[in-house]
Amino acid sequence: MNWRDLLVSPDTPILNTLEIIDRNARQIALVADENDKLLGTVTDGDIRRGLLKGRDLQDPISMIMNPYPTVSSPYDTRENILALMKIKQIHQIPIVDEDGKIVHVEMLNDLLSPDKKDNWVVLMAGGLGTRLYPLTHDCPKPLLKVGNRPLLETIMQSFIDQGFHKFYISVKYKAEMIQEYFGDGSRWNVTIQYLVEKESLGTAGALSLLPERPNEPFFVMNGDLLTKVNFDHLLDFHKTYQAQATMCVREYDHQIPYGVVTLDKQRLVSMEEKPIQRFFVNAGIYVLNPDVLEKIPHNQFFDMPSLFDLLMKEEGQTIAFPIREYWLDIGRMADFERANIEFAEVFG
Length: 348
Hints:
Blueprint: E1 7-8, H1 14-23, E2 29-32, E3 38-42, H2 44-52, H3 78-88, E4 92-96, E5 102-107, H4 108-112, E6 117-124, E7 145-146, E8 149-150, H5 151-161, E9 164-171, H6 175-182, E10 191-196, H7 202-205, E11 218-222, E12 225-227, H8 231-240, E13 245-255, E14 259-264, E15 267-273, E16 276-288, H9 304-313, E17 318-322, E18 327-329, H10 333-347
Parallel strand pairs: 1-2, 6-9, 6-11, 9-10, 13-17
Antiparallel strand pairs: 2-3, 4-5, 7-8, 11-16, 12-18, 13-16, 14-15
């Protein structure tokens, strides 16, 4: 069920709200303004308590709603949301953005047994892994073991745990090793097909090898990342803002190792000792609408930044999803060593 089916305005009669709650399987109504900003929540229990206090069924729902509901952020992990549900002893949590706008509703049953989702997942695993040589001399980087299993398997398992089941893996360097290990996906009860690059096509160019066009927004993710991103929230974020393309971004801090001065010609205006500069960097995870595939040249090198540049020039709806959860790009030997140290704590 779409969370929009749970929306009521603050002046909706209690009776109408009760009918909405009875109709939906989530047993909750969301009271929101015209911009989908959450004002409160209503459950069957809230209505019963209101009636016991003498409220009439034609009274506006704002008179009995809970104006201070427990909410969560799109950037919270599945584990954090489950822990919050346990502490608060609740079965539903609205997910709201920084402005209080609703983007999703999490249900306890869905988190414990996620619904099957038909959105495709494309994993980019064709790189040479040059910076991890000699580890990648005889093994492609996606098959390097982090913790007790290959890196790409951990990525795929994160999607599987959230209900996704249709995968495409882009391969080139030592492609046969990746294909042999993952096969058709039946070992994980999912389907896997391969996009075999004869020449390096870049992070977007490989999408031109897809055998057909998907019907729903789909994920693209680099095959050398470890993250605890909630992909369900990412997908809802993409849909809520009616995006054509969503890029996950990560805040990156860079400290300048010197005192930085500001000059007005020869006059010293100010000085700041070893300032920290903050940037958002591309995190290598994307959600794209199917029509974006029309922008990608067939069987030619084309990277994802070039695709986003093109969409922005055409004034398409391109948005950013900040990652607050654990995220590590395993591009250097130091990153690989760090990943093995942190794996057990982060991924269990």
